[in-house]
Amino acid sequence: GALEEAGSDQGFQAQPWKASWLQTAGVNECIPEWNPLGRSAQEKVVIRQTAAVPNYPTLRQHRLFLAFFDEEGRVYQKHNVLVKAQTETAFYYDFSHKAPSAVLVNYGEQAFMKILLDEKSRDFFLGNLAKIEEQHTRAIIWVAFWNMVRDARLSGVDFISVVTDNISRETDTSVLNLVLNYTTSTLEYYVPAEQILQFNLREKLFNVLKTMLISERSTHVTTLLKRFFISFAKDESAYSYLEQWINGSLEELNHVELGLDTKWSILVPIFRSLNISLPRKYELLRKQETEDKSDFGKKMKLRLEAQVADDTKRREIWASFFDKTSKQSVKDIAKVMEGFNDVSNSAKSEAIYPEYFRNLKRVYQERDKEFGNEFFSLLSPLNDRFDENIQLYQDVLQNTGEELVWLKRKLQDQIDTLQRRKKAYQFARTNTQRKI
């Protein structure tokens, strides 16, 4: 058992609990601190608690399980502990006979908090996730990994490495969806472009999911996998494979249903291809139009046409975003914006980014919040010149009055996001461990 410096429920009072949990905003994060080389009968394990968001600094009392894992990834001890509403709560355990290979705070998720891993535990789980048999425990570890990517404590490459090594073992659709959403966001926001190329991250993910799709027979799983599989296509080999699939010439994927939505999703990467001709792209688009005359189909057509627009058409499209007399719905215009600022147009879009910043305030003044938010998000710069973009957003913020409260919130959130991404990039460039 534990000789606990703080660990009883004695003195619990409802009013302080109500004040800290029900009347105060914010969430806490907890990370264990322990000596991996310690072998005494009184080894100190500290749970360090901080506020996840500095603006909401309240620390809280948490009742949770602290789990010790052996070298085989098994939980050999778990301790029911009370973390005090303070920065450090210390506990003492006997490591003289057996010391843990990893420690996990909030095993079983009894408490509401943001979970982080210490370096020793992080490295153990990165290399041994397959040994963790409990699905729920693996899910907790996946969430901890993701938290650490966002907080610049784990490189995006290392995260994607553990994904490519372990994703095929995850059979629960909720866990699969969780991990693949994290993976998509990691690629989009937290891995420098040069590392994506250096480690062939998209190609590896595309091939891992292709292998899974080929062998998977559960409709629930294939429905989930195919969405992410298509999104990871970013080279000509992948585009060619998807073209074969939409043409019905891929026998190995005959068992995966190609619904109308999936076909539209496939056309987006096909329209990015430099090897597939423009007439061929429009041939596929016309065929899809005849099969799907829904509003969604019409919106996707708008997106795809904007995606391959020439320079003259792009100037017309850009001007149309400021046409207050336009009868187009905001949802239709948003699809045009998606195609206009698609990743395949990143070089062309550089020319409009100065105009984007100059017109942000005007858009919110002249149009409704829904339109303004679509303009703000869908036309934001795709480049990773963080310092430059942070400064440009700050300039807009400084010149925006309280009457445009929605814009001010968006600007501050965007600045915070860019600062987070900058920190994650800096960490990834100097702390990537696994060469996948």
Structural class: alpha+beta
The spatial strand order of the largest sheet comes to 1-6-3-2-8
From the spread of the alpha carbons, the general shape counts as globular
User: How many strand elements?
Assistant: 8
Sheet-strand content, in percent, reads: 5-15%
- The string of secondary-structure elements, in order, is EHEEEEEEEHHHHHHHHHHHHHHHHHH
Are there runs of 5+ residues with pLDDT below 50, and where? 1-8
Distance between the termini: 41 Å
- Separate helix tally: 19
- Overall pLDDT confidence: 93
Percent of residues in helices: 40-55%
Radius of gyration, rounded?
Answer: 25 Å
Summarize the main sheet: 5 strands, mixed
Outline the structure in words.
It is built from 19 helices and 8 strands. The protein is α+β, with helices and mostly antiparallel strands and 436 residues long. Helices cover 54% and strands 11% of the residues. Strands 1-6-3-2-8 form a 5-stranded mixed sheet. Strands 5-4-7 form a 3-stranded antiparallel sheet. The chain has helices spanning 14-21, 119-128, 135-150, 156-166, 173-190, 193-198, 201-215, 219-231, 236-246, 260-270, 278-291, 295-307, 311-320, 330-340, 346-349, 353-366, 369-378, 386-398, 405-431; strands at residues 3-4, 28-33, 43-51, 62-69, 75-83, 88-93, 102-105, 114-115. Residues 1-8 have low confidence and may be disordered. The protein is globular, with a radius of gyration of 25 Å. Helix 4 (156-166) runs antiparallel to helix 5. The chain starts with a strand and ends in a 5-residue tail after the last helix.
